[in-house]
Amino acid sequence: MTVRLTLGMYYVFVLDWLTVFQREQILVLRLEDYAANLKKTIKKVFDFLSVGPLSEQVEAALTKRPMSNTRRAKDRSLGPMFPATRTLLSQFYQPFNSKLSSILNRKAFLWSYS
Questions:
Q1: Cα–Cα distance list, 39 to 15, 27, 42, 68, 93 (Å)
Q2: What value does the mean pLDDT take over residues 86-112?
Q3: 38-49 and 56-63 are packed helices; what angle lies between their axes, rounded to 10 degrees?
Q4: Within 10 A of 47 (CB to CB), how many other CB atoms are there?
Q5: Alpha-carbon distance values, 46 to 1, 39, 69, 110 (Å)
Q6: Which of 35, 51, 56, 75 has its CA 20 to 30 A from that of 82?
Q7: Domain coordinates in residue numbering, the chain
C-alpha cells in the first residue's frame, strides 16, 4: 500500500504559495468544516472571491452532491486504523500542523485525535 505522508504537510505548500501571493489572496479551508456545513463554507468562498451572494439555483447546484472524504471499499475492508498508527501519525504531523496554525494564525489547524 502506498503511503503519501507529504500530502499532510500543508504548511510547506502554504509557504510556497506565499512566495507568489499575498496572505490576503489565499483562503485555506478545512475539510471538516466543509463536511460539517457545506452551505456556510461555499458562502465563505464566494465572499472571499467577492462573487456572491449565492443565488438559490447556484447554491442548490453546489450543495446537491457534496464531496466526501471516505475510504474506498477496498481500503475499508482492511478495518480501522490501529491506535498505535494513529498515535504515530499524530506525533509525526504535530510539528507541521503547529507551523501551519502559526502561519495562518488559526488554532483550528492544530488537529488532535486524542
A1: 28, 16, 5, 14, 29
A2: 92
A3: 120
A4: 13
A5: 38, 11, 22, 25
A6: 35
A7: 5-69+94-109
- List, in order, residues 6 or more apart from 92 with CB less than 8 Å away: 5
Give me the residue label for grid cell 461555499. 42
pLDDT of 68 over the 70 cut: no
What's the predicted TM-score (pTM) here?
A: 0.76
Q: Span 61-73, mean pLDDT?
A: 69
Written as one letter, the residue type at 103 is I
Report which residue type is found at 24.
E
